[in-house]
Batch of 3 targets.
Target 1
Amino acid sequence: MTHSMRTDTYSSHPGGGDWRDTATRYALLPLRIFLGVTFVYAGLDKLTDSAFLKDSGAGSIGDMMRAVRDSSAIPALIDLSLKNPVGFGYAIAFGELAVGLGVLVGLLTRLAALGGALISLSLWLTVSWASDPYYYGNDLPYLMAWIPLVLAGAPVLSLDAALRARRRSGTGEYR
C-alpha cells in the first residue's frame, strides 16, 4: 500500500486553503474600512460644520486656505480654490463622502481610491506641505494608504466582487 503526502497546501477556491490564503484575501479589508469610515466622517463633518462652509471667519474654509497659501507647494491651486471657497469646501466634502462610501461598499473601488488619493495629494500639496518634518503632516500617509486600493481594488466583500462573480457565472445571478 502506497501513501502519498499532499504538498499543495494552497487552494485557489474561496473556501479552501490555509490561514495564509485567507489572510491574503482579506488583507486590504481593514484598510478599506479605515479609509472609508475616515473619509465618510470627514465629509459629514465638513457638511455639518456651519463655520467650515463659509468664505471667512473662524474655522472657515476661506480663512484656512488664505492661511496656508504662502506655505503651500502650489499656491496657484489655493488661488483657484479662493475664487469660490464655499464651493471648494462643498466639493471636498462631497468628494470625501463619495470616496468613503465607494470604498466601504466596494463599488468602483479603484476609481474611488484614485479619488481619495487625489484628494489626499491636493491636501498634502496645499494644507500640510509646510509640516516640518514632512511626516508630521497627515495627508502624505493617507496618499500612500490609497495606493494599494488603487492597484488592487476590493477583491472580497464588495459590490465589485459580486458584480465580477455575476459576470463570470454568465447566468446573471449572484453566487
Target 2
Amino acid sequence: MARRPKPKSFGADRPVPTTPARAPRQQVIPDAVANRMVRRIAIATGTPTLLGMGVFVASYLLVSRGLLDVPPGLTLVGSGAFFLLGLLGLSYGVLSASWEDGPGSLLGFEQIGVNIGRVRASVRAMRQGTSGSGSGSSQG
C-alpha cells in the first residue's frame, strides 16, 4: 500500500523567526501619577477648549441680537487663541504633575523644570542605547 504524503500546513516549510528576548519594561507610570497627569490635562486643556467654543457662542449671541457688531476675524482670532492655549495645556498637564509619590503643589510650576530634565535625560539615554547598534557606521 502506498503512503500518502502528509499535507503541508501553510508556511510550515519556513523557519520560525525568533526575536531576541527583550528586557521587561522597568519603568511603568504608577496609577497615582497617571491619574494626577490626567486631571491636570483635563483642566489645562478642557477649560481653554470650552472657552474657545464659548467665543463662537458669545459672538453669535452678540451679533444676532444686535448688541454688538463683532467682526468674524475677531471671533476667529479669539477662539484660535483659546484653542492654542488648550494645546499648550496638554504639555503643561504632563510636565507640571509630580512624577513622585507625593502629590506636589496645586499648580506644579516647580515640577516643570524637574520633569523637563527627566525627559531630556531619558531621550539622551535612548540615543546612547541605540547609537551603538548601527551596522557599518564609523564613529569618529
Target 3
Amino acid sequence: MLSTKTRGKQVEKCQSGAMGLLNLPRMLQDEGFVGIVPILWNILSRSQIRDRILAMRRVFQHYQQDLGYILISAKKQS
C-alpha cells in the first residue's frame, strides 16, 4: 500500500481504472468537445494519421483487458 506521506509529499489522490485511449466517449470526457474537434479533423482529413490511429485503436481494443492506468497526485509539504 502506498504511504500517504512520502519524502515530504502528501498524497492527495490515488486512482486506477481501465485505459480509455482512442475511445470516443472517453476522449470527449478528457478533452471536451472543443478539444476533440481538431483531433477528429486531423484523423478524418489526413490518411496517414487516420491509418496510424486506427491501427493503434485496434491494438488498444485487443489488449484492453490488460491495459489500465494508475494516477497518483501529491503535493509538496511546506
